[in-house]
Amino acid sequence: MPQSLVKNYLHIVFSTKYRQKLIDSAIEDELYMYLGGIANNLGCIPIKIGGYQDHVHMLCLLSKNITLATLMSKLKANSSKWMKTKGEAYRNFYWQNGYAAFSVKASEVDVVIKYIARQKEHHSRKTFQDEFRAYMVSNKIEFDERYVWD
């Protein structure tokens, strides 16, 4: 085939270090736009970004020219540095080391968009840890909780 045809939708989830509730209403929209700008500059088209006080969900198209690991490294490093410039409340802002990423079928993109949009409502009933466990189980990913939450 003389060309590369790629369309990889990814639902990415990552948390603040120790799940500190540092993503507050004063910064969340600006943070999500900043993350979207980083992704876009890397050729990874952001579709929906949202989250709650201690974590972020991002639905994006992964560029054919970048690895997931590189995307995550750039997203987390650059946004963490940026957050530290936004005031004293964010001076000790860090992301947790790991992340989770799930492939999304094109026919399920709208479902994921709605899910991300309803994070505040969703987390009034379910903790991030419970949400994360459910994603691991539904995606048949084996994990050891001793290494997930630090």
Describe, in plain words, how this protein is organized in 3D.
By secondary structure, the protein is of the alpha+beta class. It has a single domain (8-147), classed as Alpha-Beta Plaits, CATH 3.30.70. Helices cover 37% and strands 19% of the residues. The chain has helices spanning 28-41, 68-84, 109-117, 119-122, 128-138; strands at 8-15, 46-52, 55-62, 100-104. It has a 4-stranded antiparallel sheet with strand order 2-3-1-4, with helices on both faces. Helix 1 (28-41) crosses helix 2.
CATH superfamily: Transposase IS200-like
The top-level CATH class is: Alpha Beta
Unreliable stretches covering 5 or more consecutive residues:
none
The gyration radius over C-alpha positions equals 15 Å
Structural class: alpha+beta
- The dominant shape is globular
Record field, number of beta strands: 4
Number of domains: 1
Strand order of the largest sheet: 2-3-1-4
Q: What proportion of the residues form beta strands (DSSP E)?
A: 15-25%
Q: Which fold does the CATH topology refer to?
A: Alpha-Beta Plaits
Order of helices and strands: EHEEHEHHH
Question: Percent range for helical residues?
Answer: 25-40%
Q: Could you report the average pLDDT, rounded to the nearest whole number? A: 90
Report the CATH architecture: 2-Layer Sandwich
Assembly annotation: single chain
> If helices are DSSP runs of H or I spanning 4 or more residues, what is the number of helices?
5
End-to-end C-alpha gap: 45 Å
